[in-house]
Amino acid sequence: MPDSVWEQTQLESLVLAENGLSEVSEQIGRLKRLRMLDLGHNKLTRMPQSLADVEGLADFLYLHDNRLTALPLSFGRLTKLRYLNISENAFEMFPECISSMSSLIELRASDNRLAWLPDSIGRLSRLRELHLRNNKLTSLPETIGKLLELRQIDLRGNALTHLPAAIAALPRLEKLDLRWVVTLILPAWITDLEARGCLVYR
Questions:
Q1: Residue 85: which H helix or E strand, with range?
Q2: Helix (H) or strand (E) holding 44
Q3: What is the CATH number of the domain that holds 36?
Q4: What is the value of pTM for the model shown?
């Protein structure tokens, strides 16, 4: 990346997708006015700590289709961010910092290697869409029941053996996608969800 990019401190939107980038400079923290950042379809293995200094980052952060295995804990300071896409990476553990992104409305973490979600995901009280397709999840934490704004849960292609009954009590849930999940015996409360109008794909 040319250093001249980091001198554009008035930028509100920056698209660096599909550039074969293997790293991003810590100087990105100078772009205080950024609202949208697209780093998708690159070769990134790590993210700069200083991105957390862009505390106005509110609209979109695209990190999909890279080689990431972790996110800096400092990213928990991105409390205005509403959309995060970390799909198509190599995460085996759910980044704990995401649970502090209290404004998230949509989270996409499909096509990784996640085997579990932390209880702290229940802190994402504004979340409406949770996309977890093609991971290695066998269950979800009971705290999923705290996500009272949740409309969609995509669990396709996971190795689920258990779903918490708390899902049945989610008041706004409109879609639960369980296609290509061959390890799960559907719990009885699934019919209650469908009876109230929630679409359950299986």
A1: strand 83-85
A2: none
A3: 3.80.10.10
A4: 0.97
